[in-house]
C-alpha cells in the first residue's frame, strides 16, 4: 500500500523522536558521588520538536529517572531536576510538589528505594485533595461536588462540569458571615471564575503528573 508524502514525513518524525527518547534513556546513568568528574550533564538535552509540541513521554521518563537516582542531599541531581522542571514549563504548583518529594527523601520520611510512581501518586494526589479542600473552605461549597467537577474537566470546557451542583451546594450564609458585602449573584460569578483558575493553574497541572 502506498503512503502519501505527508504520512511518510510523519513516520520519519516519529522515528526520529523515538531515537531521541532512546538516547535520553541511555544517557541517564547512575551518578557516582565519589567521582565528580564523571557527573553526567543533562542541561543540553532538548525536549521539544521543531513544532514546539511537548513530548510528554520523554518529559515523564526523564523526571522519573532523575527522581529514581536521587539520594538524600544530592545537590547535583536536585539542580538537574529544577532545570528540567523549568525547561519543561512546569507550573509553580507542580515544582513545589517535586521539591516536597525531594525534601522528604532528604529527611528520610520517604525512602529513596521506594517505587517513584507510588511516591508521586501519594504526593500529587494529596496536593490535589488539599487544593480542593482549600477552595471548598474559602467558598463554602461541598468537596465532593468539586471532586466530581475536577474529574470531568478538560481545559476550556464550557460550562464547567458540575458547576450547577457546586453552586447549589453553597452555604451562602456561612460565606456572608465572613464577607458581609457579598451578594448572591456576584458570589456565584466570582466563585465560578476562581474555580476555573484553580482547575487550569493548579489541579490540571498536578493531575498531569499522575498520567
From TrEMBL:
It comes from the Bacteria. InterPro entries: TypeI_RM_Rsu_C. Keywords: Endonuclease, Hydrolase, Nuclease. Residues 15-181 form the Type I restriction enzyme R protein C-terminal domain. It holds the Pfam family EcoR124_C. The keyword Nuclease applies. One of its GO terms (molecular function) is endonuclease activity. This is Type I restriction endonuclease subunit R. The lineage of its organism: Bacteria, Bacillati, Bacillota, Bacilli, Lactobacillales.
